[in-house]
Amino acid sequence: MKAIRRFTVRPVLPEPLRPLSDLARNLRWSWHAGTRDLFRSVDPGRWAAAGGDPMRLLGSVPTERLTELAGDRDFLDRLAAVADDLDTYMTGERWYQRQSGRLPAAVAYFSPEFGITAALPQYSGGLGILAGDHLKAASDLGAPLIGVGLLYRHGYFRQSLSRDGWQQEHYPVLDPHELPLDQLKEADGAPAQITLALPGDRSLRARVWVAQVGRIPLLLLDSDIEENDLIERGVTDRLYGGGSEHRLLQEMLLGIGGVRAVRAYCRLTGHAAPEVFHTNEGHAGFLGLERMAELRAEGLDFDAALEAVRAGTVFTTHTPVPAGIDRFDRELVARHFGPHAELPDLEVDRILRLGMETYPGGEPNLFNMAVMGLRLAQRANGVSLLHGQVSREMFAGLWPGFDPEEVPITSVTNGVHAPTWVAPEVYRLGARQIGTQRAEEALSIGDSDRWDSVADIPDQDIWDLRRSLRELLVLEVRERLRASWRQRGAGTAELGWIDGVLDPDVLTIGFARRVPSYKRLTLMLRDRDRLMDLLLHPDRPVQIVVAGKAHPADDGGKRLIQELVRFADDPRVRHRIVFLPDYGMAMAQKLYPGCDIWLNNPLRPLEACGTSGMKAALNGGLNLSVLDGWWDEWFQPDFGWAIPTADGAGTDPDRRDDIEAAALYDLLEQRVTRAFYERGRSGLPDRWIEMVRRTLSLLGPKVLAGRMVREYVDRLYTPAAHAHRAMTADAARELAEWKAAVRGAWHGVTVDHVETSVASATAELGSTLALRVRVGLGRLRPEDVEVQAVAGRVDEEDRITEAAAVPLKPVGAPGAAGEWVYEGPLSLDRTGPFGYTVRVLPSHRLLASGAELGLVAVPPEDVAEAAGLLMR
After folding, report:
1. What's the confidence (pLDDT) of residue 353?
2. Buried b (16+ CB within 10 A) or exposed e, 737-772
3. Residue 241 in 3-state DSSP?
4. How high is the pLDDT of residue 449?
5. Which pTM does this prediction carry?
6. 604 — phi, psi (to 5°)?
7. In the Enzyme Commission scheme, what number(s) does this protein have (predicted)?
8. Nearest to 588 by CA among 420, 414, 384, 419
């Protein structure tokens, strides 16, 4: 029989056990081993059955067991120690509090998904896991973030396989009352509610749930409430589900509703108001519009409000391809804003202009969320050095006249939260080497001093650790594979072969990620005979564990999964290669430590960062990857292997896959397997162990989310907070008026004449050129511009590379025609082909970059040729 109504019955804990509730409701347990060990000791069997979820555990423990624990002095002492440790963690001084300078009082961090723990399934893949790791690392550092997202009633889908290997999706219902969440409530106890206006006099209402992620509150908006009509209740039904309008409403609730939720949370709890708003990808971009509407209510016009909002906004882009960005029809967006919908005080045409692709190659009828994000943020970044470069090229149309390298998008390479992803066995080995306190600091903050101690760990200990982790993975794989085959309809009698799947002494390769086509799940199948030879080699076999989900609407991705599953079902190789369905955090935490090699073979440069290989590295796994994302930045032969890229202009996709697959097989056959199986005098694989050691000691401190968050604080959050404080209402009006004046007068800015003190085409290293430039400023003044000499090496087409800009100074008064003369020295500090040019940029004390307005004036060709701009 099916229940007609569902309740959540919470356990009543005996008074001595009340701290267990607080520990369960703070998600720090998900990365704090001591707290998890305490909960495991409550009832090991039920802990395992609850999937390591304290809330589910406490809801299942019999009253008799709770009564027994309430009288167990040893347990109560452990409980008190863990509770005291959490209190110290929550209130004590940490890295952020020890910094000098005026750091942000608070930062609001918006993301459409957050991967904190499998017990709170609100993530689909890398973006969410990164967001979760960002919050955890901020908590460990004491950085005052407020996370903002949506609470999806079905989360992302659960995955199983049909008998023939086709992906099947399931959407279990999540009850917020059974999750580690608390409702945000008004002073009178009523649930706090956020309301958005919709066309046709309708409303979208949401309540706010709070997940406590260590020191960080994570606010999750939920539209599935009785006050909403059926359509509005479904806005937060699924992560990345529904059509275009459904997605638009989700993103309006996330951005606009999210700001309102932050304001309510700060009002009700006394939390410091954010000085910086960080948009993690374009989904939350509408938050800037809500903040502009707040400032309009305080008397600022649209342009001044825009400048004030931009000053304190950071935008992070995660996609290296335009197709990965949310874009909406302009008419759909226009219908949801204005007098009869949301944000009536903002002019609809001005809102639309913020997101329109008004640049060469753009589609002017589409509203682009990333373009709006960039226009609403004074600071922007990609998530690896290579991705920063790709992003500057992709969005260069927003800054016409500037070379891609000058587009104001920097990069902060992603990191991963080591306490979440490092296996307990790895942590214990480190703690034994340097002590518990230093090991915790090494994982959360990270510096080379603490990681250098890996050099002192004996080879045998490292090899024994890797073997034990591999053995644990083998057991996990067999259990999951058996469950998967039962879901596929197999009977117990058919599954005896699973007891022989994988071998703890065989080189183990892992490949797990989302399954869009560019990640090339099936590249390993390109030459099946060669792959079989690798799997079944009599002396140097390999075994492969594969996992991943395709988007429910991506039949192409599902076909790739089916192709791989059918290969893995072959009785000849099924003991050496497996596909595990329902990839998620719980599986990942077993998979990364147990793999010797982490394989990544995307089409370069389509992987923005690719943090899964970082998690493997923190457990001593070696990377075998295309030079993309973070691996392009940090690869060294000490750490692993680089798969060559066949990206020549004349290489078609099929041939490229053939070439790169052949290179992958070559590396495995000739280098990887030999390093793993060859033994030195000690009987151990000396070369392999040394690579593991160098991976841990040299890569370890780099791949940490603690390093990433510290970079965000130093390079983006703190400058944004300073810009926010400087952008008073008067300053915002001044900057807006100045920008309007400069844009209106820029057509009158010219570079009329350039001359130098050197007439020949050669010069000596260390000599100095005297530059003299005559410019016309039209209606502008010298203080409105900066005249620069830009110099550097030149390539075969005389384009300046490795450019450095040198400001020139005005001399004397303007000429009769209003022209100004600028002069300055230019040092010749590099040998070889060298060149320079001159340009004029807008200049104002409140600009973050000279490229901010996208305006530049350069010499016309006749002036450039007369100046003799190149020396060889």
Report:
1. 96
2. ebbeebeeebeebbbbbbebeeeeeeeeeeeebebb
3. coil
4. 63
5. 0.95
6. -70, 135
7. 2.4.1.1
8. 420
Judging by DSSP bridges, how do beta strands 768-776 and 785-794 pair with one another? unpaired
As given in the structure block, the two tokens for residue 338 are: 């204005």
Q: CB neighbours of 111 closer than 8 A, spacing ≥ 6?
A: 127, 128, 131, 147, 148, 149, 280, 281, 283, 284
Token duo for residue 458: 């004996």
> For residue 503, what are the CA distances in angstroms to 148, 315, 620, 671, 681?
44, 46, 19, 21, 25
DSSP 543-578: EEEEE----TT-HHHHHHHHHHHHHHT-TTTTTTEE
* CA nearest to 721, candidates 374, 276, 109: 276
324: β partners: none
Whether the CB-CB separation of 641 and 663 falls below 8 Å is answered with no
Please name which of 587, 603, 435 lies closest in space to residue 517, comparing C-alpha atoms.
Answer: 603
Tell me what percent of the chain is helix, strand and coil, each rounded to the nearest 5.
45, 20, 35
Torsion over CA of 730, 732, 735 and 737, rounded to 10 degrees? -80
Question: How far apart (Å, rounded) are the C-alpha atoms in residues 567 and 593?
Answer: 25
Q: How far apart are CA 544 and CA 90, in angstroms?
A: 42
CB atoms within 10 A of CB 12: 9
CA geometry: angle at 835 spanning 830 and 838, to 5°? 125
**How far apart, in Å, are the Cα atoms of 778 and each of 718, 751, 856?**
37, 11, 14
For residue 293, which of 237, 340, 351 has the smallest C-alpha distance? 351
Residue 125 contacts residue 163 (beta carbons within 8 Å): no
Residues 6+ apart with CB under 8 A from 156: 113, 121, 122, 123, 124, 238, 239, 240, 549
C-alpha radius of gyration, the chain, whole number: 29
What span, in angstroms and rounded, lies between the C-alpha atoms of 329 and 366?
5
The predicted structure's pLDDT at residue 869: 43
Cis status of the peptide bond prior to 605, with omega within 30 of 0:
yes
Question: Which of 621-652 are b and which e, b meaning 16 or more Cβ less than 10 Å from the residue's Cβ?
Answer: bbbbbbbbbbbbbbbeeebbbbbebbeeeeee
In sign, the C-alpha dihedral spanning 245, 173, 551, 603 is positive
Which long-range CB contacts under 8 A does 576-579 form with residues at least 24 apart? 576/502, 576/506, 576/535, 576/536, 576/541, 576/542, 576/543, 576/544, 577/535, 577/543, 577/544, 577/545, 577/546, 578/477, 578/481, 578/501, 578/502, 578/544, 578/545, 578/546, 579/161, 579/165, 579/546, 579/547
**If DSSP states are collapsed to H, E and C, what string results for 308-366?**
HHHHCEEEECCCCCHHHCCEEEHHHHHHCECCCCECCCCCHHHHHHHHECCCCCCCCCE
Distance CA 414, CA 36 (A): 27
Gap between the Cα atoms of 525 and 562, Å rounded: 12
| pLDDT for residue 760 | 55
DSSP 499: G
- Beta pairing partners, 21: none
In angstroms, the CA 445 to CA 447 distance is 7
CA dihedral 758, 763, 768, 773 (to 10 degrees): 40
* Greatest pairwise CA separation for the chain in angstroms: 99
CA neighbor of 312 nearest in space, from 291, 296, 328, 298: 291
C-alpha span between 630 and 412 (Å, rounded): 10
Low-confidence ranges of the chain (pLDDT < 50): 868-872
HEC letters along 652-720: CHHHHHHHHHHHHHHHHHHHHHHHHHCCCCCCCCHHHHHHHHHHHHHHCCCCEHHHHHHHHHHHHHHHH
Contacts for 39 with CB less than 8 Å, ≥ 6 apart = 20, 23, 24, 29, 47, 54, 57
Torsion of CA 112, 116, 118, 124, to 10 degrees: 30
Q: Token pair of 374, please?
A: 């960039």
What is the spatial distance between Cα 253 and Cα 233, in angstroms, rounded to a whole number?
A: 12
For the beta carbon of residue 864, count every other beta carbon within 10 angstroms.
16
Cα torsion 41, 42, 48, 52 to 10°: value is: -90
Q: What gap in Å lies between CA 806 and CA 823, rounded to an integer?
A: 11
